[in-house]
Design brief:
Layout: E1 2-3, E2 9-13, E3 27-31, E4 42-44, E5 47-53, E6 59-72, E7 78-84, E8 95-98, H1 104-110, E9 117-120, E10 126-129, E11 132-136, E12 142-148
Antiparallel strand pairs: 1-4, 2-3, 4-6, 5-6, 6-7, 7-12, 8-11, 9-10, 11-12
Length: about 160
């Protein structure tokens, strides 16, 4: 694990006390509040505890990710980008997933689009947004991006 900030970091973990489908890694590290969130990102190279969608839209977790960058800023932005190699994609084409084309696992979980991604906020709060995308190349290079901003916060219907 290599941090891109010179300040101490605080690890946050989802202890599965919420019934959600995790659309990013189960562990996201942000610069600690004492040092200020504006100092930059935290980067894992590699990270063996993350997840991506494969070429058939199935959630693959855990997988050895070659790069994960997590940022959180004082203005309420949270952003995670995960990259992995060797991800199953039998299609021979670049496959893309998002909140309105989420793949079968997320469809089964949420029932119908849209399907939000989930991030863990700096105080341990759940953050949901529809602003996410995933892609897998024919050679198995996968990228997952989830970007939360308060104005994009997803509210679950009652």
């Amino acid at each position: 694990m290599v941090g891109c900030t010179d300040g101490p970091t605080a690890s946050l973990s989802n202890e599965n006390d919420h019934d959600v489908l995790v659309g990013t890694s189960s562990r996201i590290v942000f610069p600690s509040a004492e040092e200020g969130f504006a100092k930059g990102a935290v980067r894992y190279i590699p990270d063996e505890n993350c997840g991506v969608l494969d070429g058939e839209g199935h959630f693959v977790w855990p997988i050895d990710c070659r790069n994960q960058i997590s940022t959180y800023s004082q203005n309420g932005n949270a952003h995670v980008v995960v990259k992995a190699s060797g991800v199953f994609n039998p299609t021979g084409e670049v496959v893309r997933w998002d909140a309105y084309n989420p793949g079968p696992d997320m469809l089964a979980y949420y029932g119908a689009p849209p399907a939000p991604c989930w991030l863990l906020g700096p105080e341990g709060e759940d953050l949901f947004t529809l602003n996410w995308s995933a892609q897998v190349t024919p050679s198995g290079e996968a990228t997952f991006m989830c970007h939360y901003k308060k104005q994009w916060e997803y509210q679950f219907p009652d």
